[in-house]
Structure prediction request, 295 residues.
Amino acid sequence: MEIIIGKTAGFCYGVKRAVEGSIEQIENSKNENIYCLGELVHNKQVIMKLQDKGINFIDNLKQIKVKNAKVIIRAHGITKEEYKFAKDNNINIEDYTCPNVSKVHEIVNEYAKKGYYILLCGKKTHPENIGTASYCGKYFSVIENEEEIKNVIENIKKINSNKILIVAQTTYSLNKFKIIQEKIIENMDKNVEIVIKDTICRATKIRQEETEELSKKVDYMIIIGGKNSSNTNKLYEIAKNNCKNTILVETEQEIQKDEIHKYNLVGIMAGASTPKDVINDVVKKLEKQECMSSF
Ligand code: SF4
Prediction:
């Protein structure tokens, strides 16, 4: 049996910057209370490590009751209102919002001011989209898939908007984004101006493309990452489409050794929030099962 590890598996630039920056903050802290608003990354192992180092995870800035507080902002970013709350309450911010996410905020803000209806493709409950939505002005919709297009088109017609901007969550699926664009163009009146800004980040694109290729050539595919991680779940969907023997695991403990033996070529890919040591633990577990080579 051979295993092929995807070259793009593991932390992306934005997550690496946020995790390393947070560790630095805690190491250099001078008796400050360090908080992180929401999960820094969607990965339980990383969160537990940071908790052990002393970072307090909170869901709402109102939970901070001490004076010398510093709040770490995760790569997904926060809402406009949360920045204002922090400023009004003298809460220090260490901002690790990924520059790619900040770019989406700038784009939607600019187009909302110009009167465009913003159509944001992505998961409604994802923190990144909650943050982005706060910059979208009054007229916008967040849509998760093509089934919701009909309702959105009705909404746009109701408010008589003749300008639409279509953007995506930075980790949205490339295929789904294309389908939504095509359906909107097909179903909107011809006099409506449609501007499309491809805001899916490069790291996500390359990882999805590699997963697509890798899952076509292996006979077993392991996707490693948080089960609550949007980008990891997308990798799982892509791989499963090409390789029916695809599993999604958070750690090596979920690997069934009896299952692995049946396959000759195993592919490994990991989400943007999956640390290298979690990937290495999976590889080590596979290597223990039998002699194999890995690339
Ligand atoms: S996936 Fe892309 S946008 Fe998200 S944190 Fe990583 S580099 Fe930034």
Summary: Residues 33 and 66 are 8 Å apart (CA to CA). The longest strand covers residues 163-168. The longest helix spans residues 202-217.
